[in-house]
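Exercise 3.2. Students should predict the tertiary structure of the chain below and write it as structure tokens, then compare their answer with the key that follows.

Predict this chain's 3D structure.
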Amino acid sequence: MEELYGAADRERLVPEPPKRVDAPERRPFERDRARVVHAASFRRLAAKTQVVGPQSDDFVRNRLTHSLEVAQIARDLSRALGTHPDIAETAALAHDLGHPPFGHNGERALDEVAAACGGFEGNAQTLRLLTRLEAKTESAGLNLTRATLDACTKYPWPLAGAPVPGGVHADGTSRTGAKFGVYDDDRPAFDWLRTGAPGRRRCVEAQVMDLADDVAYSVHDVEDAIVAGRLDLTRLDTAAVWGTVRDWYAPDATDDELDDVLARLRRVGSWPRSPYDGSRRSLAALKNLTSDLIGRFCGAVQQATFAAGDGPFVRYRADLVVPADTWAEITVLKGVAAHYVLQDDERVALQERQRQLLVELAEVLLDRAPDELDEAYVADWHAADDDAARLRVVVDQVASLTDASAVAWHRRLC
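Answer key:
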């Protein structure tokens, strides 16, 4: 499949000299994957919120474990389609790098803070990290190939071209900010990576990454909720859950339609017939369910995509096809997790405190910069030529923090 990707796909923004002759032989997309895995921002995901805080439970997923699971799903689906698995896996590993402390909740707070410099968006921040902030190649971040960077671009447009926000994020926070993939001052790198792209269309590798993300959190949020004792799949309050599904994801869905979707899911052989009790047998059964659901969703997408065209399923030569029934099943699982986990009153109150903490931290850093900034951001501060650029530096600093370090910085400075 390597031969399906040409020289332009393998090109890097900054040309690199040949590697040492005694170094292990790795192809360009393999190098991309390694660079993301070794990035500081990738390690920090271990201490950043996925749905609930990483310090709240030994079992609960954090941004790092979620990213690893998304990467596995993306790699398997990509291989099945004949798309380059290293590209899809790297995009999945990188897809949440730009998330600030406290997940989408923190994203919402920083978007308000950054209003004067073009807002904040986790996907645009990911591109900024990959092409500027991560220290691998001066002025070019990790200096990934064009094909990999394009696969990392979930929303290939700037703020000015973003659709009107609506709905909710995976963790239940409202989509108050527009979804976009590049800040205005990162347009040179964005324009380079989108060379040859047809308008706002996403490459098929980015579509694989995005679907893998949806599949992972729809299934794994349910798994986490069951183990935490918040959800029993054998006793669902469907009337209440369907209300959440309509409020959050599918406003036009009827009770009958949602009942049919749940009935299909219950026919999955590993769907539980008795409550989870914490035993190894029960945990094994739950793992079988998550595996079966992921296989069910990805298998349906693979079949539909093959049925829609002959391929090759590379870059802009094809699109991923997600059957309506499959998307409905993913949506119902999201709604189940949302109802039993994400609407908890204590969690809503905690999110309000977290947003206030980030706003206060950004304000005090802006007042005291550059003295309180990490050294890398001190250099960015001195290089900034106006107030908006200096505000962006402060936002970059806050976004880089983990949940725990944001709390510690706030305690020290505020």
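Discussion points: The mean pLDDT is 92. Residues 280-308 form the longest helix (29 residues).
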